[in-house]
Amino acid sequence: MLNDRALARSALLSRKPGPALSVSYPPDCRKIVSWNLLRRTGATVAGIATLIAHEQPDLVLMQEATKDIEGLPAKAGGHYAWAQMPGRIHGLAIWSRKPFARPPEVIELPGGTLFDRVCQVLDLGDFGIANVHLSHGQVLNRRQLRRIERSLPERAAVIGDYNLVGPPLLPGFRDVGPRRPTHAMGRLVPLRLDRCLVRGLACHAHSALPRGASDHRPITVHLAPSGEMSRPEISRFRDMAARVGRWRREGAREASAPTDPQG
User: Fold this and answer.
1) 173 touches 142 (CB < 8 A)
2) Is pLDDT of 11 > 80?
3) What are the CB-based long-range contacts (under 8 Å, 24+) for 87-92?
């Protein structure tokens, strides 16, 4: 005689699946996957092709991609661009379902004491995408973000492995990616290293996927242009912040200056 648990399991297995829930996104919305592959020992071409077949993204941004990943279009179709990190065996890569209007631009970033870094900037026409793998230094990686921002159009997203703890401190951008941890440092400390910051874009959905062979979870975001603040408004806020900072410095100098003796 079946117990209650076995009966419930039997009923669940025999239930016919209902119709799949359809989610409608704006026509100009793009689904983007970002994944740190874990060089050499992590995700392979076959694993990435399986991810593409399952998720059906418009773009896949990859970090720690080695030269072997160049075989991805032969498995998954699409188009591919790779940017090697200076002096490293790996770099950044972008897979696109559609041909690139022009190849991604490679931007040199402020370097650290050990390694130099670059990022890829892809112009999609209605907005730009920066594929990043930032340094571990918590001051340096924020400097790198500010350098990247200067190469982006008004509507843009910065997506990838930030190696960053805490707020990114990038004016005008919002953090819209999944909030769950995406990496476990030494398999002990969960960290949300893989992020998506946007300006002038709306995120209609996001998720963190199973990590597979890598030590990072892939993240997905659905992005489309929105009516957020324009670049002139951003510049006005920056000018205001600069003026406030200047006034504070001038006030501090006046407070510390020696006073004339009274006579």
Assistant:
1) no
2) no
3) 87/115, 87/116, 88/115, 89/39, 89/40, 90/39, 90/63, 90/64, 90/65, 90/66, 91/64, 91/65, 91/118, 92/61, 92/62, 92/63, 92/65, 92/118, 92/119, 92/120, 92/131, 92/132, 92/133, 92/160
Answer yes or no: is 200 within a domain.
Answer: yes
Whether the model pTM is above 0.85 = no
Tokens coding 12: 């669940």
* Cβ-based burial of 97 (10 A; exposed 0-12, middle 13-18, buried ≥19): middle
Q: Do the beta carbons of residue 93 and residue 62 sit within 8 Å?
A: yes
pLDDT of 204-235, one tens digit each?
A: 999 999 989 999 999 999 999 997 554 544 55
Does residue 263 sit within a domain? no
Q: Residue 196 contacts by C-beta under 8 Å, 6 or more apart in sequence?
A: 32, 34, 157, 158, 159, 175, 176, 177, 203, 206, 219, 221, 223
Of the candidates 145, 158, 166, 184, the one whose C-alpha atom is nearest the C-alpha of residue 34 is 158
Q: Tokens standing for 114?
A: 């050990």
Q: What total of structural domains would you count in the chain? A: 1
Token pair belonging to 251: 């006030």
The enclosing domain of 126 has a CATH number of: 3.60.10.10
Question: Which residues constitute the domain of residue 46?
Answer: 25-235
Amino acid identity, position 92: L
Whose structure tokens read 């003796």?
A: 261
